[in-house]
Amino acid sequence: MTSLSQFAEVLDYDEALAKFDPVLGLEVHVELNTNTKMFCGCPTEFGAEPNTQVCPVCLGLPGALPVLNQIGLESAIRIGLALNCSIAQWCRFARKNYFYPDMPKNFQTSQYDEPIAFEGYLDVELEDGETFRVQIERAHMEEDTGKSLHIGGATGRIQGAEYSLVDYNRAGIPLIEIVTKPITGAGERAPEVAKAYVSALRELLRALGVSDVKMEQGSMRCDVNASLRPRAEDQDSVPLGTRTETKNVNSLRSVERAVKYEISRHAAVLTGGGKILQETRHWHEDTGITTSGREKSDAEDYRYFPEPDLVPIAPDAAWVEELRGTLPEPPARRRRRLQGEWNFSDKEMRDLYNSGAVELVEATVAAGASPLAARKWWTGELSRLANLEEKQLSEMPVTPAQIAQLQALVESGKLTDTLARQALEGVLAGEGDPEQVVEKRGLVLVSDDGALGEAVDRAIAANPGVADKIRAGKVQAAGALIGSVMKEMRGKADAARVRELVLERLPVDAPDA
Amino acid sequence: MSELTRRTAADLAQLLSSGEVSAVEVTQAHLDRITEVDAGVHSFLHVATESALADAAAVDAARAAGEDLGPLAGVPIAVKDVMTTQGLPTTAGSKMLEGWVPPYDATVVRKLREGRLVMLGKTNMDEFAMGSSTEHSAYGPTRNPWDLNRIPGGSGGGSAAALAAFEAPLATGTDTGGSIRQPASVTGTVGVKPTYGAVSRYGLIAMASSLDQGGPCARTVLDAALLHEVMAGPDPLDSTSLTGGYPDVVAAARAGAKDGIAGLKIGVIRELHGGEGGYQAGVLARFDESLALLTKAGAEIVEVSCPSFTAALPAYYLIMPSEASSNLAKFDAMRYGLRVGPQGVEGPSAEQVMAATRAAGFGDEVKRRIILGTYALSSGYYDAYYGSAQKVRTLIQRDFAAAFAQADVLVSPTAPTTAFPLGAKLDDPLSMYLQDVATIPANLAGIPGMSLPSGLADEDGLPAGIQLLAPAQADDRLYRVGAALESLLVESWGGQILDKAPVLDAKTLEAIR
Ligand SMILES: [Zn+2]
Predict the structure, then answer these.
(1) Running DSSP on this structure, what letter comes out for residue B159?
(2) Is the bond into A227 cis (omega within 30 degrees of 0)?
(3) Where is the Asn/Gln amidotransferase domain (chain A) (predicted)?
(4) pTM value?
């Protein structure tokens, strides 16, 4: 059975959608950015030497006991409130029991039937500006496991590996798992809805300041559940089909692709008269397909029971209300407000949002740049460079304040666009603020007539044909001479002044007619 | 045997603070006694000769320098091997942890060190505290100093025997279902299980987290109070630790011995007094004698009924193994302790090593409880087993609440019998479990309990114990009534009960080897 599903054909997406109605479910794990772990005082910094951020508690040494991180609880409640959830008046942690080498205690301290937050929703904006409401089932607290590295196998999985290394630095990092209710009614836009949901969730969590939400570093991880049911007049009355759970889909683009792939694959299996196995599947970023993981039919029994080493959580109602007061403006509303303030078109604002630059532009404007200039920098040159380096905009080593400074230099006439791009290059290379780069690299605009005049004379001498054309009235040919001057002066010439000097030297002859 | 080893801790503290003896002398006397008798009694799994003498010398130096020392500074103590001790081996009586030296101290151990008590070594116990005879230790049984062919009780048989054999004046214990009180009962010593949460569980290798409680073991009620005071207190490392409500137990013990108990109401629990409980006649006779003494001293005896107690043992044998099955999952050979490769397997997988290690490292009783607990928590059985058992727990708490409305303290025999011969119940787990029938309800309800000697049973001349129970956080009542009863009993015996114990001479000890 496994091998069959492994090499399953896929059905054309449009054909699949004509026959079936897709239903999705998304489980998102978010690492909180608390200073210490969920149940001990170990630091949570990313990228430390393996097994240096550990203690008796997160290593599960005999006798050690957990103590709940209050900031973790606070973040969980704020996330729940921001997702329009009810907050439990009384709830507990539970132990999820299973054996795995990267779990120090061989149980994960999690929440089971008593989540801290439940029954909420998140409105997500689709690319055409339409809003789709995703119902939230629950958000609960748990601890992360350690990280395994399996060496010597073909697949990078534990089966077939020669040996494995485990880093427990991650063990005990606070996690919030956010689970949607079955997402119905998205139809052919299901992949887009999935992507938009994860994107909106990421934006919300970032605005809350509770997580780094870096999918590429694993501080936000997504599991995608998908199932199909036959199309029908009264779609809601058709029971849900068997679902598969695709684990660790860790970029926005992959979420969209994985959903699309699973819909096409399910459709092929079902159309061919086969059955969907309830199983977990692995996502392959490179090939864009999923393969069968372990079957869930032998229903893993996690033997959940209330964690006796922790006391029940009963958040004070007044405290919850106080936390509600700390919620940021909902990102969608904030975007509409900013769009008005900045006077951007719907499309301009959407592009800005899709490139993840809203906060960056906002900060750049706050640092003194005009909205137009700020948008131009972030969606123009910086987006281009980020694409080249396959980075997120927010990861570019330049601050909004530096961009604002750069723009000020341009507007005061001290830098041309070309020079400004060179200054930016210096900033990105770590040479300091734009003003320092200008200083160090000597990126000063030459507008001294003496030096410019000599360069113009040389350009005219070297291009007699062009000079004749200008004299003959083809003023636009001056561009070639200006370019030649700019090239000689490595972009540091004041282009407007060069143009004036060229035209002064090459007056248009009186027309013949 | 040095006369010093027959002194109470209170006496030794007095001699030490007045400078009549040095801590080194006291420690050496006890180390000599251990050398003399422990090959026969086997109270200790590890004797810390060097560090004990060094610690004692440090106390003497501190005292000479005029430092302010705690009331028990320089008094030796034996520590149950279930408590982690930095730098000293800690096995919990299991092969699984043979040779493991913890990198951290249990909170209780830290408090002992801060109080400058001198740790003589680690005492024997049933593996992971599972048993009532110390025969389930992976390192061989401890023998009862009253009769070396009999059990010293369990799981804390090592600590109780060390007291009865005058190897230590004080010892620590843990009590999940009677592991402090039942050994005290069968060795003619005093043991107290404080209110759940009064003594930190941090660093106590867990059996059942919601039931485990550390407590003092001693030869007199006052000594137990002095040690109780050192061990108890809030601990930020244990979430279930009580934040307040710690009564002055030392004052209560002194007041009880001095002022008596006139006017106090003492409730006899009908369900734990004869009937079908399999109580030995001599145990009941001594219990009734104690009641008569209390009446004579002005206490009012009332009968109370706790009908749910009949379900206590079955409920305990669902909750305890359930929690234990999860708590013991961490012993998997991955990070510390025993590691066994499966026989005849080249390059075994992590899973195979885990299985082989757990098969080889755990004894039969531990495996029995892990299997029981795993079954009880399985999906489909959870409600019927773990869920129902938790309801019984609530009923028992209600029974206690009703009983304490009628009486200040409750009493029962501690254990139904005196010490039984080694091996007598090894093949009959149920009859072994019945040893704890009277002690288990206190653990299920979280209330404090004390066992003190009530005399020697006529039929075998072995010690019997009486159990006192008080409401949660009213541990002082145990000490007040216990000290009063103790002084009445000692007066009636014309000396300490242990004065009647047979002398452990070379011939008796030789016969064992
Ligand atoms: Zn830690």
Answers:
(1) H
(2) no
(3) 359-506
(4) 0.88
